[in-house]
Amino acid sequence: MKAVSITEHGGPEVLRWAEVEDPTPGVGEVVIDVVASALNRADVMQRWGLYPLQPDWSPYPGLEVSGRISAVGEGVTDRQVGDEVCALLTGGGYAQKVAVPAGQLLTIPKGVGLAEAAGLPEATATVWSNLVMTAHLRAGETLLVHGGAGGVGTTAIQIAKALGARVVTTVGGAEKAARARELGADVAIDHRTEDFTEHGPYDVILDVVGGDYLERNVRSLAADGRLVVIGLQKGLEGQLNLAEIVFKRASVHGTTLRTRSKEYKAEVVAEVQRNVWPMIENGTVKPVVDRTVPMADAAEGHRLMEAGGHLGKILLVNDGSA
User: Fold this and answer.
1) Is-contact 3 92, C-beta < 8 A?
2) Sign of dihedral through CA atoms 288, 291, 297, 300?
3) If you write DSSP's letter for every residue of 260-302 in order, what string do you get?
4) Looking at the whole model, is its pTM more than 0.85?
5) 16 CB-side CA count, 13 A
6) How far apart are CA 47 and CA 58, in angstroms?
7) What are residue 145's DSSP bridge partners?
8) Residue range of the domain that includes 48
9) Is residue 203 a part of any domain in this protein?
10) What is the CA angle 246-252-253, rounded to 5?
């Protein structure tokens, strides 16, 4: 098979579409013939060498795919060859085939195309695990979502609204702000010209930015507020006023889904299948796809993501597989 290899750390030009060894399913795993994968910020960080890989992870990027099962490993009884699925991965999605634990598989939601479904697992699992399982977002609370134009952001806006929250989001530019409001955001802030602290306080903040947003995030929290940091786009360090934490009874969570155990991921995937898939099938939550790019031209997809002009997911599609 072919996969996208990272030949060295650097810009998009280091990505190469090359022949690699076919995967085989281990115990409790299946192999998927990949129709499509989707870009995530972690893929870009991996390419730059800023996301250290664990020994048992695939060296190829790609945290989610959709496709058809082509092989079933020992111990898998509820899946069979030919099933159309999408899946949450630890890596390896930029390829023609990938092995994945059966517990990380999802059915394709009714009304969603097979290639389009590739952009669902990572965003929905990230949003549900952080907003609901970690921050316990409740109806009537106010949520601030940073990066509301990205794959996680567009999903978070819609799921939070479906849960009955008031949603505020930050985006870059008037066009993205308008689109965020179309997706359900009550307030869309252009971070280039407005200060999000003026629209608080917030019961929950979902932060993909990191860095110097930390101090302003904590200052903007309501009493008993919860800040969940899931990204580090603006750096690894920020100032923290402990008095703000103590007197607000606030909590700060740092989480990443990729490093979790397969058992935890299976739990999240089951929660998503049970709670988010009905929202997608009834039209409450809609996949947001900016564009598709051939898998063999993953470098172009990375250039588009780093340019920052996209809204929602950028998909990588294998030729002739959809």
Assistant:
1) yes
2) negative
3) S-HHHHHHHHHHHHHHTHHHHHTTSS---EEEEEEGGGHHHHH
4) yes
5) 11
6) 13
7) 169, 206
8) 2-119+289-317
9) yes
10) 150
Write down the H helix ranges in 113-184. Answer: 121-127, 151-162, 174-182
Domain at 171, CATH number: 3.40.50.720
Residue 285 identity (one-letter amino acid): V
What is the mean pLDDT for each group of 10 consecutive residues in the chain (322 residues)? 96 97 97 98 93 91 98 97 98 98 98 98 98 98 96 97 98 94 97 91 93 89 96 71 86 92 97 98 97 98 94 92 50
Q: Please, what's the b/e burial string for 24-61 (b: 16 or more CB within 10 A of its CB; e: otherwise)?
A: ebeeebbbbbbbbbbbbbbbbbbbeeebeeeeebbebb
CA-CA distance, 218 to 205, in Å (whole number)?
9
For the chain, how many structural domains are there in total?
2
Q: Please say whether the beta carbons of 165 and 159 come within 8 A.
A: no
Q: At what angle do helices 41-48 and 298-307 cross, to 10 degrees?
A: 110
Q: Strand 142-146 vs strand 202-207: parallel, antiparallel, or unpaired?
A: parallel
**CB half-sphere exposure, 252, CA atoms < 13 A:** 20
Tokens of 45: 């960080």
**Which tokens is 53 given?**
């890989």
The answer to whether position 271 is within a domain reads no
